[in-house]
Write a structure and sequence with these properties.
heterodimer, A: 293 residues, 13 helices, 68% helix, B: mainly alpha, MetI-like fold, 14 helices
């Protein structure tokens, strides 16, 4: 596995270095294509944003992108009357707890895999890896029965544990690669000063792997923030709904209330986009390592 | 304790006996200590692994075995109801179930349509955005943003766009047709499937884009330059330099996209509900319906187990085949 710093492009892309297409004058047609790609990618989301500001009455058949009489009424209604503020808090609690627990226990495990030799190491690692080859949604039925037996059905704690379990293998896999790339000399130096294993991990390994930790945190956050089928199965009372379940339930009950629905959709979408934009500065070096082995 | 100090006060013979014994004691002590430290060294990685292994064992590994177990019973979840053992009959029923055939076909179509299209567009977008462009960070972020949005949200945005009354798509079609149309896109099998494919491709492209972008960035630019100096055409540069260099990324993307596509659920559950008459059902939505609408847990567990085995074998084969091409 390559070193974290080596995954950055060897030639700086700024300046006169040859690009993928060699010829610089093609950059204008590439710019046109870039605008097109961005329009297609963001179009449906901008449409949703526009709909959320239009008065609910005239919503069906709204084909204009700029609302003529913009209103925030939909947001007020979604946030207060339709209890989306409540679902928002639930989603936030579950997503933040999932990120924290997953990153902590995956870092511990990844450190063991990256730095120690012990019996059954490869076997345990492959058992973790194997689950990446099978969709975790397939375990919905036995997980439902398990949560029932543990009295964790309809609880946000139970949901968090399931999310942690489903995000663990990928996180361990990605962090292990990053941890292995950190030179052992650093670790030996800090150990000579009397640091124990945990201090090595907290003060040295994790800070040096910040890009990977940041990117993987973003992945876990958006995965648990957006997760639908597991939450739909495990949560059955409205007070414990997360945003996706709340949204699906709302549109099932109020089939014509598109205004508040799209306002709530925007509320559900903004936080993940913000988290993604924050993580962007670590993205390049974090993501390349996970992809290219 | 220092043995020399004591030996000074007693006779030489006793001293040597005693020092021999203390020497033996010391030797044993160091050996014990060495074993203890080695034991501690061995136990450290296990301690580090313990929380992850515990969570994984309880919530992932145990359910896998539990699922196989349930699949051999006519399992109900209602308390007090008996769950008779039925052997392989859940499995044989799968092969006689016409909806399983439809759902398998739909899942297969979903995979062979959405995976290659996502990869081609993702690679295309990565090629467009890999070199420096004005605002390049913005374009890259824009292409990736659909990936982080919620399936429930975008499913309903697409449902709204393809609504029969007042949907944007019908307005567009009506504009070209010259009269108003009210096609009920999501209520018919093929148009319903097409909306699901379109949405899945739109939302998925950014993921393969980001992997391919990283892969393309990793290609040494001198290699491309050298090929061009030798007079290779752009098409040949792509075939013989670019594509071979990103093979690892292609393998990674194919394997993970196929696994992801095999669990297509939310967009179908929200847009067509598997209808009309189960014609847009995927294996995952059908399994879900059997378990949580009809409470046929044993049957659904058999379906899930079978699918897990098939997908696992498929992923293993896929990795092996794509790896072999490397050599």
């Amino acid at each position: 596995m390559a070193l974290a710093v080596e995954t950055k492009p060897t030639t700086p892309m700024a300046g006169s270095g040859p690009g993928l297409f060699g010829i610089r004058k093609r950059s204008r047609s590439r710019l046109v294509l870039a605008v097109l790609l961005a329009l297609v990618s963001l179009g449906p989301l901008l449409y949703m944003l526009s709909l959320s500001f239009q008065p609910n009455g005239g919503l069906l058949g709204a084909t204009v992108l700029i609302p003529t009489h913009p209103t925030v009424q939909n947001y007020v209604q979604a946030w207060t009357e339709n209890s989306f503020s409540h679902y928002f808090v639930n989603s936030l609690l579950v997503a933040v707890a999932t990120v924290a627990i997953t990153v902590i226990i995956a870092s511990l495990a990844a450190f063991a895999f990256a730095r120690y030799r012990f019996p059954l190491k490869q076997v345990i690692f492959y058992i973790f890896l194997a689950s990446l080859a099978v969709p975790n949604l397939l375990l919905l039925i036995p997980q439902f029965l398990l949560m029932d037996r543990l009295h964790l059905l309809n609880s946000l704690e139970g949901l968090t544990l399931l999310y942690v379990a489903s995000n663990l293998p990928f996180t361990i896999f990605l962090l292990r690669g990053f941890f292995e790339a950190i030179p052992r000399e650093y670790e030996e130096a800090i150990r000579l000063e009397g640091a124990g294993t945990l201090r090595v991990l907290v003060n040295l390994i994790v800070p040096l792997s910040l890009p990977a930790v940041a990117v993987v945190s973003m992945f876990i956050f958006s995965a648990s923030w957006d997760e639908f089928p597991i939450a739909l199965t495990m949560i059955n009372s409205a007070s414990n709904y997360t945003l996706p379940v709340g949204l699906a339930d709302f549109i099932g009950v109020h089939t014509v209330a598109w205004g508040p629905f799209f306002a709530a959709s925007v509320i559900a979408t903004v936080p993940v986009i913000v988290v993604f934009l924050i993580s962007l500065r670590w993205f390049r070096s974090g993501v390349s390592l996970g992809a290219i082995r | 304790m220092n043995p020399e100090r004591h030996s000074a006060t007693v006779s030489p013979g006793a001293a040597s006996r005693r020092s021999a014994r203390s020497h033996r004691v010391r030797r044993v002590a160091t050996r014990v200590r060495r074993i203890a430290t080695r034991g501690r060294r061995i136990s450290i990685p296990y301690l580090l692994l313990a929380p992850a292994v515990a969570v994984y064992a309880v919530f992932t590994v145990y359910p896998i075995f539990r699922q196989f177990d349930i699949s051999f019973y006519n399992w109900h979840i209602f308390p007090g109801v008996s769950n008779p053992f039925v052997g392989w009959s859940n499995y044989t029923a799968i092969f006689r179930d016409p909806v399983v055939r439809t759902a398998s076909f739909n899942s297969f179509l979903f995979i062979v349509i959405t995976v290659p299209v996502q990869m081609v567009i993702g690679l295309f977008a990565a090629a467009v955005l890999t070199d420096r462009l004005p605002g390049s960070m913005f374009w890259r972020a824009a292409v990736y943003i659909p990936v982080v949005t919620s399936w429930v949200v975008v499913s309903w945005v697409f449902s709204y766009i393809f609504a029969s009354q007042g949907g944007v798509m019908n307005a567009v079609v009506g504009f070209f047709a010259g009269h108003t149309v009210s096609i009920d896109w999501t209520a018919q099998t093929w148009t319903g499937n097409a909306v699901i494919w379109l949405l899945s491709i739109w939302k998925g492209v950014g993921w393969s884009f980001i992997i391919f972008l990283a892969a393309l960035d990793g290609i040494p630019r001198q290699l491309l330059e050298a090929a061009r100096i030798d007079g290779a055409s752009e098409a040949r540069v792509w075939r013989h330099v670019v594509l071979p260099s990103i093979r690892a990324a292609v393998t990674f993307v194919v394997v993970l996209l196929v696994i992801g596509a095999a669990q297509v659920f939310t967009q179908i559950y929200e847009i067509t509900k598997g209808g009309p008459y189960n014609s847009t059902q995927s294996l995952m939505t059908y399994m879900y319906q059997q378990a949580f609408s009809y409470f046929a847990f044993g049957y659904a567990a058999a379906l899930a187990s079978l699918l897990a085995v098939v997908l696992f074998g498929f992923s293993a084969a896929e990795i092996r085949i794509l790896r072999q091409q490397d050599v």
